[in-house]
User: What shape does this take?
Amino acid sequence: MAHILVVEDEEKLARFVELELMHEGYEVSKSGDGRKALELATNNTYDLILLDIMLPGLNGLEVLRRLGNSHPTPVILLTARDAVMDKVSGLDAGAVDYITKPFAIEELLARVRVALKLHPVEGSASSAGATDPSKAQNSPAEDAANGVYRWKELVLDEKKHRVTWKGQEVSLTNREFEMLKVFLTNQDIVLTRDTLLEKVCGYDYVGETNVVDVYVRFLRTKIDEAFDIKMIETVRGVGYVIKSE
Ligand code: CA
Assistant: This one.
């Protein structure tokens, strides 16, 4: 089972997250100090690190920077509500995702599942014996490593900046491309307009979340309608989701 390092100095929150993760069957280690966490992450192979930003010892962003881009373990940052710059610098420094405090535990668990699926750590306890090289071609893990994301016959190739449906190219603007990528990397997670806006635009756009509806409409026109499929579903009053099944 995946081994997760929870780095959080608010003890109650850390304990709560630990219990929930253990309940899901994960192995959990905890640290409430940035310097200690960096040491743990350097000397152990974790499958995922949940990293708070405001920490004693060394802050989370600094931990992330010192781990460096070559560190194999995916990191999800825990950030304060309006710490927009933290989110941006965190993603720049190599975090795969972030979650805003306070969060619903279901959302945290869903993001943990996605991060583990998209960023498997080679040589970790959970991956031992799990990979059959003959089947590695186009596995979700290899796809993710290559920046390739799929939904049914849709393929988004990040490196080539190319989207196709059944091999047919779909021409998207940068923003549409980014939004599609957010959907594809968060399949089965209902994304609120705020979340989409933050992930796509990179900053809070308070009061103008209908920008998201505009981009969703563009994507639907270029993909759903063009190929007569139903990809982006509306969750009334909440946001949008792409379902993997
Ligand atoms: Ca903290």
